[in-house]
Amino acid sequence: MQQSHLNSVNETDNIKLAIIAPDGREGMFMHARECAEARIPFLFDPGQGLPMFTGDELLDFIDKADYLAVNQYEAQLLQEKTNLTLEVLASRVKALVATKGAKGSTIYTNGQRIEISCVQADALVDPTGCGDAYRAGLLYGITRGWDWKKCGQLAAVMGAIKIASRGGQNHRPDRAEIADRYEKAFNEKIDLS
Ligand SMILES: Nc1ncnc2c1ncn2[C@@H]1O[C@H](COP(=O)(O)OP(=O)(O)OP(=O)(O)O)[C@@H](O)[C@H]1O
Ligand SMILES: [Mg+2]
Asked: Does the Cβ of 101 fall within 6 Å of ligand 1?
């Protein structure tokens, strides 16, 4: 991770969407700057990297980002560091997504709050990686141009599937299983083809 600044965003063509998640400090700055210059929308996911940055540095990332995602602890720390509330921070991006573990998640967008409920898991085996699984669903929905409720609901399904298996991301659900879980949880059809 400390070598991440050796990878440049500019080495890859046709990037439609990026995520800037915990990485080397220098790499995170560089990738945010490169995405902004190339007009590549990105989700800023400071995660456990949050303590590396000052409030002003975090605001600089947020102003470059289209989307921001944090868990409950990170939301608290981000508000303390920037001296801004989640509502105010949300007004600086297209959407701010705050996950709340078993209490689900809230998506702040367009001056509104969309509450996404948690999906019932088959078993509570290992919560590590729920945040990443959730983000996978979110990014998938964003690339498809879905509305925020649908993006958040798919994200919640991915989090619930994750928690039932051990390890960060060792599980391999297929599209049919994910669609089935989504349809059962939310009583709506979803096309993942
Ligand atoms: N007990 C649970 N049952 C079902 N879904 C869950 C549960 N815990 C978390 N999730 C889902 O996963 C999402 C992300 O969880 P959480 O807020 O705990 O992320 P996190 O703290 O970033 O996790 P990580 O440990 O991966 O960093 C939640 O919003 C929820 O949709
Ligand atoms: Mg996390």
From this structure: yes
CA separation for the pair 31, 45 (Å, rounded): 13
Atom 16 (ligand 1): residue with closest C-alpha? Answer: 101
Name the pLDDT band for 25 (thresholds 50, 70, 90): very high
Which one of the listed residues 132, 147, 174, 180 is annotated catalytic? 132
Contacts of 114 (CB under 8 A, 6+ apart): 106, 107, 108, 148, 149, 152
CA of 6 to the centre of ligand 2 (A): 25
Q: Classify 114 as helix, strand or coil.
A: strand
| Token pair in block for residue 142 | 């964003």
Asked if residue 152 lies in contact with residue 116, where contact means CB atoms within 8 angstroms, the answer is yes
